[in-house]
């Protein structure tokens, strides 16, 4: 939940959110969805996973989760965020969310990323043209042309 609170003078607003993990109220600095306390805990878990993988390269998701004491979903999230790369037998388990090909990191393969970017650029251009046309139409509606005035 996002809430804006104005100061007593009404000059500035403070945006507050509830952390999606613990529910605490916090003031986000950027677009983060978790509070600073949960962020530190998440970073600590990430460092533990990375350290375990350095000592045990090629370990499975389940093995890492059990040894480090995190849920497998946390490891999958690190992979989707591009913070971890998958290799070995686990490589075939992580797939592109769009086309289904195998990935080492992230949510989409390079081909799908490019196609999504191209589609997004096209949508932005179409929206821009639509806005320009609407503005031009509104401008002509408000103008009186001399030909339309009868003497």
Summary, kept brief:
It is built from 4 helices and 3 strands, in the order E-E-E-H-H-H-H. It has helices spanning 36-55, 61-68, 72-80, 110-141, and strands spanning 2-6, 13-18, 25-26. It has a 3-stranded antiparallel β-sheet with strand order 1-2-3, with no helix packed on it.
Describe the structure.
The chain has 151 residues and is mainly alpha-helical. 46% of the residues lie in helices and 9% in strands. Strands 1-2-3 form a 3-stranded antiparallel sheet, with no helix packed on it. Helix 1 packs across helix 2 and helix 2 packs across helix 3.
Draw up the topology in text:
Blueprint: E1 2-6, E2 13-18, E3 25-26, H1 36-55, H2 61-68, H3 72-80, H4 110-141
Antiparallel strand pairs: 1-2, 2-3
Helix pairs in contact: 1-2, 2-3
Give the termini distance in whole angstroms.
Answer: 62 Å
Which structural class should the secondary elements be placed in?
mainly alpha
As a percent range, the share of strand residues is: 5-15%
Task: Tell me the number of helical segments per DSSP (H or I, 4 or more residues long).
Answer: 4
Going across the biggest sheet, name each strand in turn.
Answer: 1-2-3
Name the CATH architecture of the largest domain: Orthogonal Bundle
Radius of gyration, in angstroms, nearest whole number: 25 Å
**Which topology of the largest domain does CATH recognise?**
Arc Repressor Mutant, subunit A
In CATH, what is the class of the largest domain?
A: Mainly Alpha
Q: Determine the fraction of residues in helical runs and give it as a percent range.
A: 40-55%
The largest sheet, given as strand count, sense and whether it forms a barrel, is: 3 strands, antiparallel
- State the low-pLDDT regions, or none: none
Instruction: State mean pLDDT (0 to 100 scale).
Output: 79
Question: How many domain units?
Answer: 3
H and E order = EEEHHHH
Secondary structure tally: strands: 3
Choose one word for the global shape: flat
Protein name: Flagellar operon protein (TIGR03826 family)
Keywords: Cell projection, Cilium, Flagellum
């Amino acid at each position: 939940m996002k809430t804006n609170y104005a100061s007593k003078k009404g000059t500035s607003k403070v945006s507050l959110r509830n952390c999606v993990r613990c529910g605490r109220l916090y003031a986000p600095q950027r677009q983060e969805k978790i509070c600073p306390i949960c962020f530190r805990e998440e970073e600590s878990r990430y460092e533990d996973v990375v350290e375990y993988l350095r000592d045990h390269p090629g370990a499975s998701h389940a093995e890492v989760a059990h040894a480090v004491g995190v849920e497998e979903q946390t490891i999958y999230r690190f992979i989707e965020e591009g913070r971890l790369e998958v290799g070995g037998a686990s490589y075939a388990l992580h797939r592109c969310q769009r086309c289904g090909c195998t990935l080492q990191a992230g949510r989409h393969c390079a081909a799908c990323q490019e196609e999504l970017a191209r589609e997004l650029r096209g949508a932005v251009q179409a929206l821009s043209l639509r806005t320009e046309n609407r503005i031009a139409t509104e401008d002509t509606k408000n103008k009186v042309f001399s030909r339309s005035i009868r003497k």
